């Protein structure tokens, strides 16, 4: 069991960076006139869905709009050049953050993880796959990966296979070794499961994929925000994540791809801004990564994502990871004290920063609503892993997820909230 002393972050000063954490909440915002009851302090434990945004990231957006709002890549004028430099350098910053030594050429800005999956699925999958091929996923994929590759399978005839999840929430690696064979062209795996918290052995899976000359796509939506990720150490061919889960804004995410592979891929969207020469008959493409960024990109979002990366790195990814591990273990231990609570996934000291569970006899939506009355924000539902919930034999679960600004006291508030729900439904 962890100790209070071992928490590595100065959470009080970190919390001061996030004005929203000062909020009080109350009432029902979905009913006109009822959402303004400022009753109870916010306890924000829904970070796996979206994290909060520190002031300096918001200020980076404001600064862009107040000081140098202009379109990128094309302008000769001063503002456009300032915006272009900031936007382009943001790619380098993000590349560096995930250990991509090729810099900006290996990082495409997308809307989010989902769009990054779709980019590869369409640019590569639809063009390269056929009925003789297989795509290997895990049973714990988020719909962003699962639905995308499933649909590619349907369109191309490629077989979609799923690596089994064991009872304890880990992957059956013998099954992985069986499934990934000479027919396999793509292995798409979630790094940290957003439902089970499992940390998957992506480097090992990359080896299995590469032994068969297949690519590996790592869904890092729940790992890049919370731990140090090195695309080259894990030998990922592609890796994707979303800004809004890592202190950045919504509407911006990134796809890392090995340069040699991205060079070969077709653009995913067509239009202006990513072309070099256009005639009435054909078009040629800009250099990486702009080839994949057709149209006006989310300029302020890209710049703010780089600011978020700076913010996280200033605090230290290893310390953020440790802080979350301690909170998660504490939450796991406290929730495990109750016989009527079932927790899904690996033990508390072997998971990413989240705990999904169910309280006997109480639907997760009801539990979430009771917790919300106490200011506690958690997520209820299938967390975009419906097939995994089907496999677990449950319609939904309740998920608490932690980040750098959460405290033990907030975990205590969660446990007390669950107690209250238990009494209400007794
Ligand atoms: C593991 C995982 N993959 C993909 C996604 C999709 O992210 P986005 O909605 O930002 O595209 C999420 C979001 O919850 C996730 O947790």
TrEMBL record:
One example GO MF annotation: cysteine desulfurase activity
Top-rank taxon: Archaea
InterPro entries linked: Aminotrans_V_dom, Cys_dSase_SufS, Cysteine_dSase, PyrdxlP-dep_Trfase, PyrdxlP-dep_Trfase_major, PyrdxlP-dep_Trfase_small
Domain Aminotransferase class V: from-to ranges: 43-414
Coiled coil location: none
Cofactor: pyridoxal 5'-phosphate
Catalytic activity: (sulfur carrier)-H + L-cysteine = (sulfur carrier)-SH + L-alanine
One Pfam family recorded for the sequence: Aminotran_5
EC nos: 2.8.1.7
Family: Belongs to the class-V pyridoxal-phosphate-dependent aminotransferase family. Csd subfamily.
Protein name: cysteine desulfurase
Natural source organism: Halobium salinum
């Amino acid at each position: 069991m962890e100790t209070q002393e071992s928490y590595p972050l100065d959470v009080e000063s970190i919390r001061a960076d996030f004005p929203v954490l000062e909020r009080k909440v109350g009432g029902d915002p979905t009913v006109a006139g009822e959402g303004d009851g400022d009753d109870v302090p916010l306890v924000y434990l829904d970070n796996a869905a979206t994290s909060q945004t520190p002031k300096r990231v918001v200020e980076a957006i404001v600064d862009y709009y107040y000081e140098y709002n202009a379109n990128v890549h094309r302008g000769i004028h001063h503002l456009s050049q300032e915006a272009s430099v900031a936007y382009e350098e943001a790619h380098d910053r993000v590349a560096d953050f995930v250990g991509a030594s090729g810099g900006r050429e290996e990082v495409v800005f997308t809307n989010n993880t989902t769009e990054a999956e779709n980019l590869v699925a369409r640019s590569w999958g639809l063009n390269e796959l056929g009925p003789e091929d297989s795509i290997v996923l895990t049973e714990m994929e988020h719909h962003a990966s699962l639905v995308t590759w499933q649909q590619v399978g349907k369109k191309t005839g490629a077989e979609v296979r799923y690596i089994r999840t064991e009872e304890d929430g880990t992957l059956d690696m013998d099954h992985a070794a069986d499934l990934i064979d000479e027919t396999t062209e793509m292995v798409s795996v979630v790094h940290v499961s957003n439902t089970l918290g499992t940390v998957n052995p992506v480097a090992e899976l990359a080896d299995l994929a590469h032994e068969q000359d297949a690519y590996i796509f790592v869904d890092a939506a729940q790992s890049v925000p919370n731990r140090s990720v090195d695309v080259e150490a894990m030998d990922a061919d592609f890796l994707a994540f979303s800004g809004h889960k890592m202190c950045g804004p919504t509407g911006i995410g990134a796809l890392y791809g090995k340069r040699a592979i991205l060079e070969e891929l077709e653009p995913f969207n067509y239009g202006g801004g990513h072309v070099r020469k256009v005639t009435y008959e054909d078009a040629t493409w800009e250099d990486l990564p702009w080839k994949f960024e057709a149209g006006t990109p989310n300029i302020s979002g890209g710049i703010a994502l780089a600011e978020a990366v700076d913010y996280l790195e200033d605090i230290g990814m290893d310390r953020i990871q440790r802080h979350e591990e301690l909170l998660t273990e504490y939450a796991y231990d406290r929730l495990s004290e109750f016989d009527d609570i079932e927790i899904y996934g690996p033990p508390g000291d072997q998971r990413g920063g989240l705990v999904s569970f169910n309280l006997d006899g109480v639907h997760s939506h009801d539990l979430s609503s009771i917790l919300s009355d106490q200011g506690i924000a958690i997520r209820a539902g299938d967390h975009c892993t419906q097939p995994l919930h089907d496999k677990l034999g449950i319609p939904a679960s309740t998920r608490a997820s932690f980040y750098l600004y959460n405290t033990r006291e907030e975990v205590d508030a969660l446990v007390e909230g669950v107690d209250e729900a238990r009494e209400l439904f007794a």
